[in-house]
C-alpha cells in the first residue's frame, strides 16, 4: 500500500514539476517578447486545471497590452500557440498551456459562463435546443462547463472556425 501511495504522490509531483517547467519556459519566452515590443508587463505563473497558466499583467493599465490581445483575442490566441511551440521546442512535449493577457480571458470566461447560464434558462423554459454563435475551442469549453453545471447537455457542431455549441434539453 505504501509503495502505491508513494508512486502516486511522486507521479503528481512530477506532473506539477513539469507544468511549473512549462510555465518557466513560457515566461522566459514572453519576457523576450515584451522586451522586443518595448511593452511593460509582469508575468504571473500558476497551475490551473492540470495545465500551466501564464498571465501578462500591467500595473500601468492594460491599454498597451491590448495590442497583444487584438480584436476579439485573435492576437492572444496566436501568441498562445507560439508560446506553446516555444515550450514544445524546449521540452519535446505538447503543451496545453493557457495564456491570458491583461485579464482578457478571465473577463471572457465570466461573459461566457453568463451566456451559458442564459442559454440553459432558455432551453429550460422552451424545451427547444439553442444554437450559439461560433466560438474558439477555449470559449466552447467554458460554455460546455456552464451548461453541465446547469444540469443540461451540450454538443459542439460544425467545422472550425465556424464550430458552435448547441444546448440541448436534459
Overview of the structural elements:
The structure is a single chain. This protein is an alpha+beta fold and about 170 residues long. The chain folds into two domains: about 1-100, GMP Synthetase, Chain A, domain 3, CATH 3.30.300.20; about 105-170, R3H-like domain (Ribosomal Protein S8, Chain: A, domain 1), CATH 3.30.1370.50. About 55% of the residues lie in helices and about 20% in strands. The protein contains five helices and six strands, in the order αββααβαβαββ. It has helices at about 1-35, 65-70, 75-90, 105-125, 135-150, and strands spanning about 40-50, 50-55, 100, 130-135, 155, 165-170. It has a three-stranded mixed β-sheet, sandwiched between helices. A three-stranded antiparallel β-sheet has the order 4-6-5. The protein is globular, with a radius of gyration of 19 Å.
Amino acid at each position: 500500500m505504501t509503495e502505491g501511495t508513494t508512486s502516486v504522490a511522486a507521479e503528481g509531483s512530477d506532473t506539477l514539476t513539469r507544468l511549473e517547467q512549462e510555465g518557466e519556459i513560457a515566461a522566459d519566452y514572453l519576457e523576450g517578447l515584451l522586451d522586443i515590443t518595448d511593452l511593460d508587463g509582469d508575468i504571473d505563473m500558476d497551475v490551473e486545471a492540470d495545465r500551466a497558466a501564464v498571465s501578462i499583467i500591467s500595473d500601468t493599465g492594460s491599454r498597451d497590452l491590448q495590442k497583444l490581445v487584438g480584436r476579439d483575442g485573435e492576437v492572444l490566441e496566436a501568441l498562445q500557440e507560439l508560446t506553446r511551440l516555444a515550450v514544445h521546442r524546449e521540452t519535446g512535449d505538447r503543451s496545453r498551456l493557457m495564456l491570458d493577457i491583461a485579464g482578457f480571458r478571465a473577463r471572457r470566461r465570466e461573459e461566457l459562463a453568463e451566456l451559458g447560464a442564459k442559454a440553459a434558462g432558455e432551453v429550460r423554459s422552451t424545451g427547444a435546443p439553442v444554437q450559439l454563435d461560433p466560438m474558439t475551442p477555449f470559449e466552447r469549453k467554458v460554455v460546455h462547463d456552464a451548461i453541465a453545471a446547469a444540469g443540461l447537455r451540450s454538443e459542439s457542431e460544425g467545422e472550425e472556425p465556424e464550430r458552435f455549441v448547441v444546448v440541448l434539453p436534459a
